[in-house]
Amino acid sequence: MSGKVILHYFNGRGRMESIRWLLTILEVEFDEHYLTSRDQYLKLLNDGSLLFQQVPLVEIDGMKLVQTKPILYYIAEKYNLHGKDIKERVTINMYSEGLMDLMEMFITLPFAADPKSKLDSIQSKANERYLPVFEKALTGPLYLVGGKLSLADVLLLECTLMLEEKLPGIMKEFPSLKSFQGRMINIPAISRFLQPGSKRKPQPDEGYVKTIMEVFNITRPLP
Ligand SMILES: N[C@@H](CCC(=O)N[C@@H](CS)C(=O)NCC(=O)O)C(=O)O
Fold it and tell me: Taking every annotated instance into account, which residue ranges of this chain make up the domain GST N-terminal (predicted)?
């Protein structure tokens, strides 16, 4: 296993994108091995690399890690983006899990039988359940927890940008969140990540969906 972090996933956002965001903001270099065929997936399965037969898989520090959240928490912990004590950590985790619940809806959107009604549901949940929480937390403070950048801030930026791509104008009732975004995108590593040609992946397209359906033998839209 080389010393460099290696990401095994599709050449698309999905569950790996938050890990890419986190590594990028930390300026940790990583290589990507893209899954493009079912044979590659079967090889990872036969190697015993996929504990639960699922990706993301991240090779880091001599380990092969699966499960997105523990991977994010490990990296955040290692690079001090996970709070100074257990109270801060649990708060960061609560915010992070809420954001991941919201982003999970986007991850499955391209596979939905009725994408329009799924997007409507995302919009109302974002407006009523999620964004008000973060607007309140950031009215005054610059960061969500402990006056310092944490994993939760990185996920919040990713999530709000994702929301705006599909639902332009959704942030207009949330001025503190908009200011937060403005501050975050000026961080040099983030600003570079947002430029064309970076390792940030584009919105899912038909080719991405087709590859995933082939690799996992999916034949029907998801509910
Ligand atoms: N709880 C897991 C879920 C991983 C997951 O569902 N990965 C999908 C690809 S994004 C997968 O490998 N699906 C194949 C399967 O479940 O058989 C995580 O968050 O990493």
Answer: 3-83
pTM exceeds cut of 0.95: yes
Nearest CA to ligand 1 atom 12: 54
Question: Domain-by-domain residue ranges, the chain?
Answer: 5-79+194-215, 86-186
Cα dihedral value 136, 139, 145, 151, nearest 10: 80
For residue 60, give every residue at least 6 positions away whose Cβ sits within 8 Å of its Cβ, in sequence order, or none. 5, 6, 71, 74, 75
* Residue-wise pLDDT tens digits, 12-24: 999 999 999 999 9
- As a whole number of angstroms, the longest Cα–Cα distance in the chain is 52
| 77, amino acid identity | E
Q: Report which ligand 1 atom has the smallest distance to the Cα of 107.
A: 10
* Token pair listed for 195: 């430029």
Topology of domain 5-79+194-215, per CATH? Glutaredoxin (3.40.30)
In the β-sheet with 63-66, what is the strand arrangement from edge to edge? 30-34, 5-9, 57-60, 63-66
Q: What is the CATH number of domain 86-186?
A: 1.20.1050.10
Ligand 1 atom 11: the closest Cα is on which residue? 54
Question: What is the per-residue pLDDT for 222?
Answer: 65
204 within 8 A of 110, measured Cβ to Cβ: yes
68 Cα to the center of ligand 1, angstroms:
9
